[in-house]
Amino acid sequence: MKFYSLVVGAVLATTTFALQAETWKLDTDSSTLHFVSVKNDVVAETHRFTELTGELTDGALEISIPVSSLDTAIPIRNERMLEHLFKAAKFEFVTATAQVPAEIYSSTTTGGSLPAIIPMTVFIAGESVELEAAVQVSRIGTDRVVATTSQPILINAQDFKLIEGINKLQEIAGLNAIDQVIPVTFTVQFERERESDES
Q1: Which residues are registered as beta bridge partners of 153?
Q2: Over the range 11-50, which residues count as b (16 or more CB within 10 Å of their CB) and which as e?
Q3: How far is CA 39 from CA 47, 50, 108, in A?
Q4: Helix 75-84 with 163-173: angle, nearest 10 deg
Q5: In this structure, how many other beta carbons lie within 10 angstroms of the beta carbon of residue 2?
Q6: Are 96 and 122 in contact (CB under 8 A)?
Q7: pLDDT (tens digit, 0 to 9) for every residue of the chain, 199 residues total?
Q8: Strands 43-49 and 70-71, bridge-based pairing
Q9: Whole-angstrom distance, CA of residue 128 vs CA of residue 168
Q10: Taking the alpha carbons of 169, 159, 125, 183 in that order, is the dihedral positive or negative?
Q11: How far is Cα 63 from Cα 118, in angstroms, rounded to an integer?
Q12: SS in 3 state form for the chain?
């Protein structure tokens, strides 16, 4: 009888947890990601991706970025980077996944913020690398949180096996050098989904 009670209790606890599952959707219009390239050692240019999608469900974070949304302000450069660096014909998305402790995004009071280091797995052009993102997480409404990098994430082209692509871009553009470490910054805003009230 005691064993039966324990089993029932465990089932009820699991069911309750499932019913309380939280999903936060990334707000594409309010989210940005930029990265900086440096050519010939002295010329720095800022680029961006214009589309980000993702969600945070019970701490499991998934962000997906269509590489076709690359915007370098120069169309021919977009095409060259998509072909030689991101291998867009084969890999349509850059992705980032992480496990985020609930207290980071759900316990902050409206108007409050806290710093956090988020370990994440980043996938670019066929390679996955473990990185850390230093962010400031702020609650800007009852159902809205925003996370902004407090320092750039450094993407090492060697780790992602992007050196061949960088060398090709350097050759095509007639450059002496393109830096192989790329700083990335982002601001991502999430809105908590709520079930519609039953009529």
Answers
A1: 184
A2: eeeeeeeeeeeeebebeeeebbbbbebbbeeeeeeebebe
A3: 13, 23, 41
A4: 150
A5: 6
A6: yes
A7: 443 333 333 333 333 333 346 899 999 999 999 999 999 999 999 999 999 999 999 999 999 999 999 999 999 999 999 999 999 999 999 999 999 988 887 766 677 889 999 999 999 999 999 999 999 999 999 899 999 999 999 999 999 999 999 999 999 999 999 999 999 999 999 999 976 544 3
A8: antiparallel
A9: 22
A10: negative
A11: 14
A12: CHHHHHHHHHHHHHHHHHHCCCEEEECHHHCEEEEEEEECCCEEEEEEECCCEEEEECCEEEEEEEHHHEECCCHHHHHHHHHHCCCCCCCCEEEEEEECCHHHHHCCCCCCEEEEEEEEEEEECCEEEEEEEEEEEEEEECCEEEEEECCCEEEECCCCCCHHHHHHHHHHHCCCCECCEEEEEEEEEEEECCCCCCC
- In this structure, which amino acid lies at residue 174? G
State the Cα–Cα distance between residues 27 and 174, nearest whole angstrom: 39
Name the token pair of 10. Answer: 């465990």
For the record, the structure tokens of 128 come out as 């996955």
Please answer whether residues 93 and 52 qualify as being in contact, where contact means their C-beta atoms are separated by less than 8 angstroms: no
Vertex 130, ends 124 and 132: CA angle to 5°?
Answer: 110
CB 62 within 8 A of CB 97: yes
Q: How many CA atoms lie within 13 A of 106 on its CB side?
A: 15
Single-letter amino acid code for the residue at 197: D
